[in-house]
């Protein structure tokens, strides 16, 4: 008997089938690895971005506090500068310096550059006229700008950065500066708190690109200029967005890194230069577990290719031994099925009648069907009618027209929930010429968790994490819509600005944990005190706002008074474990027909809130019409 030619058409068909199967399997592995890498990247980007936000929010809060202190000192010494006034200013400076975390010195410098009042004994009487920030402020003479100096080396050889405001004279001329020096040790502690891996570092960079702080310190000197063409810093700055996550070559250390950056430049402060907070990880460290997994799967795939190829080759050389060849083929299929069963993806095949003829183990577990019972079952026996009809429509495109399909499929479950799958289907042909379609092969990946994670991130972007109320951005967005509708239909609308009295004392006395519980209790009282149509938000630390559509100032004042009384009567001991009570001050403003913005309405309510504070607190004040 003549042995068949090893490269005959008949012997090539099993090879084509094997190659097609391995190609599908390779596609499944590559697709799974791709989604896994994207999940790793997305997770790390979100984590770095969250860590950068923690540092940025704290730094922005510190800058705002420093700005208030500088304005307070400037207001106190703007009049006649007698010896008594300077002495009083010195006492005030010492008090503020002790009360401001993150500041290691406050100073007043006269127009000649001499330090006339300071909280630091080493700077008393010092001549600062040659300091860069003094010369810049004197030259520009702009009292409304909060000057942020480039990093510098202080008289004590420490890396420093100053925040200053100009002191105007009686005619608005330059009469000196009031300045605060940032305490690097405070921010090093904060920056160290966000380091969650050995390769993570965080940094604070001046808006001109000079490095101020880096923790832990790398092979980069403070003051180095990161504003190099094409650098990650320049890409962030040129992007124009407040927050970015970029990957690339970090020139200062010569590493490939992922870098989350956040710009701090609140418009209300009028900063001369922004500050940029950065938190970074090494790309190799991020993807090292993924690379190990990819290498392992690649090795397993190569082993599978090698084993199946050798098996098929042996089968063709022993065609006369049909039983042995059949056994070898079954062994090959068994190994292939074992490999497919181990892949965490749903793989299946259907014939032209839409009936299942194969499913790997994850698919069988999903269907809760044994392999022996699978044959002859179609989607109508496994899914609700609407889902089965949608799947049949997709299958028809593959089986009748030979289309390759890919897309999301939503499957409702008996408990009322839904699962989302990314599904890929391709036709399986009976012949090499692709003239007759035998069935289809489908690959489905459960992306429900990924979709839920995306929805969670969207929700958290609009919600205050502590109280569950709308955050400032969400409040402003909803508030502007409500204000536009009220102005369009000439309907009344009122705004309440609410502040917890002496909240700093609660934090200082009992700690921030008790302060957080107080804020949560306050949020609960707000929800129970106002209507569902009212828009409630947490605007700042202990400051809340309520926008009341269809409500005039009189009704709004009544609602504010009820809230004030509710808070004053509330006993927080059950929630906090302490005999603790609080009060609130409330400012009320109302839309009175004029064309007014939400910012202006909040500003008016803020002034009324200020009047309530000045009037003794635990009080409601309504802004004048």
What labels would you give this structure?
625 residues, alpha+beta, 5-stranded antiparallel beta sheet, 16 helices, elongated
Can you characterise this structure?
The chain is an alpha+beta fold. Helix content is 46%, strand content 22%. It contains 16 helices and 22 strands. The chain has helices at 9-77, 83-99, 132-140, 184-192, 232-239, 283-317, 322-342, 361-367, 385-401, 448-460, 472-488, 503-510, 512-529, 553-569, 573-576, 598-614, and strands at residues 103-110, 115-118, 147-148, 152-153, 159-160, 162-168, 174-182, 201-206, 211-215, 243-250, 255-264, 275-282, 346-351, 356-359, 405-412, 418-429, 437-446, 493-500, 535-538, 543-549, 584-590, 620-622. The strands form 5 sheets. The protein has a 5-stranded antiparallel β-sheet, sandwiched between helices. A 5-stranded antiparallel β-sheet has the order 9-8-12-11-10, sandwiched between helices. α12 runs antiparallel to α13 (512-529). The protein is elongated. The model has no long low-confidence stretch (mean pLDDT 86).
Q: Largest sheet at a glance?
A: 5 strands, antiparallel
Strand-pairing-aware structural class: alpha+beta
Q: Beta-sheet strand percentage?
A: 15-25%
Helix content: 40-55%
Mean pLDDT: 86
Low-confidence stretches: none
Neighbour order of strands in the largest sheet: 2-1-7-6-3
**Terminal Cα span:** 110 Å
> How many DSSP E strands?
22
**Apparent shape:** elongated
Rounded Rg: 34 Å
Helical run tally: 16
